Amino acid sequence: MVLGRLLGALTGDAGRVEPAGLGPRFQEALLPGEQVLAAFRTVRDGFALTDWRIVVLDRQGMTGSKTGILSVPYRAVTRFSVEAGGTTDLDEELKVWDRAGEAPLSFSFRRGTGAAMAAQALLAERVRGA
Q1: Phi, psi (deg, nearest 5) at residue 7
Q2: Domains located in the chain, CATH noted
Q3: Strands 91-98 and 77-83
Q4: C-alpha distances in angstroms, 47 versus 1, 17, 104, 112?
Q5: How far is CA 9 from CA 19, 32, 129, in A?
Q6: Taking Cα atoms as reference points, which of 110, 107, 112 lies closest to residue 7?
Q7: Which of 81, 101, 109, 117 has the fewest CB atoms inside 10 Å of its own CB, making it the most exposed?
């Protein structure tokens, strides 16, 4: 268990966190009244599912002080998938495609935490309602 957490931290596998764990730039990106349903963080980056969009934080550069913020409204999501970890895999992956049709957003999760399936279920619920 400890080894899995250590490897996850080194490889950047996402784990569920409180929204405040994504930092002040994330908080600034939220609209007044927007509710965060779930938040996930890797070593540098993170993403959140709010009541109307996916917010992705992409920390850039050596220090990570420059942060890109990408917003994808649920109405723009065209498909998504979860790749569950196999016997030798240490991670699971959630991929999300939007109308832009480019490469999907891809999020890695530590295997066995349930975070990938929780994110997928929440995403399915929001896309269905969009």
Answers
A1: -65, -40
A2: 2-129 (2.30.29.50)
A3: antiparallel
A4: 24, 10, 14, 19
A5: 18, 32, 34
A6: 110
A7: 101
